[in-house]
Specification:
Blueprint (H helix, E strand, L loop, with lengths): L6 E3 H7 L5 H9 L3 E3 L2 E2 L6 E3 L4 H4 E3 L2 E2 L7 E6 L30 E2 L7 E8 L2 H8 L7 E7 L7 H6 L16 E6 L2 E6 L6 H8 L4 E9 L2 E2 L9 E3 L2 H9 L5
Parallel strand pairs: 9-13
Antiparallel strand pairs: 1-4, 2-3, 2-5, 5-6, 7-9, 7-15, 8-9, 10-12, 10-13, 11-12, 13-14
Bound molecules: uracil.
The site of uracil has 8 residues, from helix 6.
Length: 250
């Protein structure tokens, strides 16, 4: 839950969650379609304590209230969708309920995956969580399953672990990264930072080419095996704590 949002007027709460204009919310409430703990809330100007259990206690037009601000989602990002609010073509936000596009604060991805990368993507409307994950100082590790065009030569793990690899057009070497070789053309690479196209550029720097890239872990949070591509889940507090459990400040 975001700071300073312990209580809100009902019309504000529902308008911010994308249920309609404040006028429309007054109409919904007036018609008895907003129900808290079994009783209709007819006064849309009344204040509501905004707690995490509200979706279990409040219904709007018979359906449970959407999660209040402060939510974090994990999405199994499929190939071919873009982490952007603006670009044309399929966007990760198209995979969320339509009403959620009207939320204020807006939901954003926590960092990005390339259009042609699949796997674990976090989204949130909570600026503090966003900052804690993507801040260059937090070093939340992210793990990728990498498939390569050519067999590895054998020195990749040492080069990536050295803390001396310079990517083209950059002047700051990469932090040490861990490569676990799974087969000639497959590996698991764990990074403590997130530079533009980092995995693809690292393998380009050692003369190879990434043909498939999938993120399967952030911190100690694994993409659940039963979360199909294109589907999402709301993170509970234990899963959110797992994101930060493996962070290593340096
Ligand atoms: N590195 C990449 O090259 N692409 C991604 O999507 C993530 C990390």
């Amino acid at each position: 839950m975001s700071k300073g949002q312990t209580s809100l007027r009902l019309d504000r709460l529902l308008a911010n969650l994308g249920y309609g204009s404040r006028r429309e919310i007054h109409q919904l409430a007036g018609a008895g379609l907003v129900v808290l703990d079994g009783a209709p809330l007819r006064d849309a100007g009344g204040r509501i304590a905004v707690t995490l259990d509200l979706p279990a206690r409040m219904t709007v037009q018979g359906a449970p209230l959407d999660p209040p601000p402060g939510m974090v989602l994990m999405l199994h990002k499929p190939l071919g969708v873009t982490c952007s609010h603006k670009e044309t073509g399929p966007l990760v936000y198209d995979l969320l309920p339509t009403r959620w596009r009207r939320r204020d604060p807006a939901i954003s991805t926590i960092g990005r995956l390339d259009k042609e990368t699949s796997g674990l993507l976090l989204l949130t409307d909570d600026g503090d969580v966003l900052h804690r994950v993507i801040s260059p100082r937090s070093h939340v590790p992210k793990r990728y399953h990498v498939t390569l065009d050519r067999p590895m030569r054998g020195d990749e793990a040492a080069i990536f672990a050295s803390g001396e690899l310079l990517l083209e057009a950059e002047d700051k070497p990469l932090l040490p990264a861990t490569l676990e070789v799974l087969s000639e053309r497959e590996g698991r690479l764990t990074l403590g930072e997130g530079r533009y196209h980092q995995v693809r550029r690292m393998f380009a720097a050692v003369g190879n080419h990434v043909t498939a890239l999938h993120r399967d872990r952030i911190g100690a949070l694994d993409l659940p095996a039963d979360l199909a591509a294109g589907r999402f889940q709301i993170l509970d507090s234990a899963s959110l704590a797992a994101v930060f459990a493996a962070a290593a400040p340096v």
